[in-house]
Amino acid sequence: MNIIAVDDERIQLEELEKAIKEVIPDAAVTTFRKPKEALEYAKELKAKDSSVDLAFLDVEMSGMNGLELAKALKDVNDRTNIVFVTGYSHYAVDAFSVTASDYIMKPVSKDGVLKAMERLRNPIIKNNKRLRVQCLGNFDVFADDKPLRFPRSKAKEIFAYLVSKNGARCSNNEIIAAIWENREDTESLKSQFRQIVADLNQALKAEGFHDVLIKEHGYLAVAPDKFSCDLYDFRKAGSSAGNNYSGKFMMQYSWAEFLL
User: Fold this and answer.
1) How far apart are CA 174 and CA 141, in angstroms?
2) Which residues partner with 81 through β-bridges?
3) Rg over CA atoms, the chain
4) Distance in Å from the first CA to the final CA of the chain
5) What are the residues facing 220 on neighbouring strands?
């Protein structure tokens, strides 16, 4: 959990940091006395595929006030939870105008931080593992830069097919036809498919990725916002991407030959 605390008064900032750590002792708390430095930090995290989960912001600060900083942080990542710290209750209306989770009155106390944590608008996923999918070249999946182990090769191939569809719902029949292109569609094959999908789901959950695979009756999909993927970055780059890559795509799978 990445937390920032911003207050241009040193003593107030130290008291805020102390209260946060009392409530969330295992959180990474980074403090700033200059709002612009806090904003730069948030941008640096985004560049590293990370983010500020929670920001405690003093309202009255020189240069850039807390309300302005909150709006800027939301532009970087709209899921950043904002909690304002103020000595004036009339800022409450302004706080909620930027979809803040809560505001805390000074002097900051442990109870104030605790109540704010209970009112966060965007739940914070405590699992800090990152899932990274590589499609350009061979298809591979990494959890914290370590290869993710799939229970069967077909489980990995099914996941590859779903990734290639960029979050679109795929019917079970469509997936079976693509993966087992030379096999007759029998009840035995469908049963095998269902077991492999169950194994795939279990493998993801075992690593803490509970919400990557989306299962509906007769359909499967992946949630593209739950992992980073070079294929998605390639597609976003548009025509300029051709200057950066001229190799193969998911080269171990024949069905992927004409997808890029």
Assistant:
1) 23
2) 54
3) 23
4) 36
5) 170, 215
Query: What span, in angstroms and rounded, lies between the C-alpha atoms of 188 and 191?
Result: 5
Instruction: Give the strand order in the sheet containing 81-86.
Output: 28-32, 2-6, 54-58, 81-86, 102-105
Across the strands, what pairs with 221? 214
The 10 Å CB-count burial string (b at 16+, else e) for 184-223 is eeeeeeeebbeebbebbbebbeebebeebbeeeeeebbbe
Q: What whole-number distance in Å separates Cα of residue 17 and Cα of residue 31?
A: 7
Give the span between the Cα atoms of 28 and 227, in whole angstroms.
Answer: 22
HEC profile of 172-195 = HHHHHHHHCCCCCCCHHHHHHHHH
Q: Is the dihedral of CA 30, 34, 38, 40 positive or negative?
A: negative
Going by their DSSP bridges, the two strands 146-147 and 140-143 should be labelled as antiparallel
CA atoms of 147 and 106, how far apart (whole Å): 47
- Per-residue pLDDT of the chain in tens (260 residues, 90 and over written 9): 789 999 999 999 999 999 999 998 877 799 999 999 999 999 998 887 778 999 999 998 988 999 999 999 999 999 999 999 988 766 554 555 667 788 888 899 999 999 898 888 887 755 455 899 999 889 999 998 899 999 999 999 999 999 999 999 999 999 999 999 888 889 999 999 999 999 999 999 888 788 899 999 999 999 998 899 988 888 776 644 444 454 678 999 999 887 76
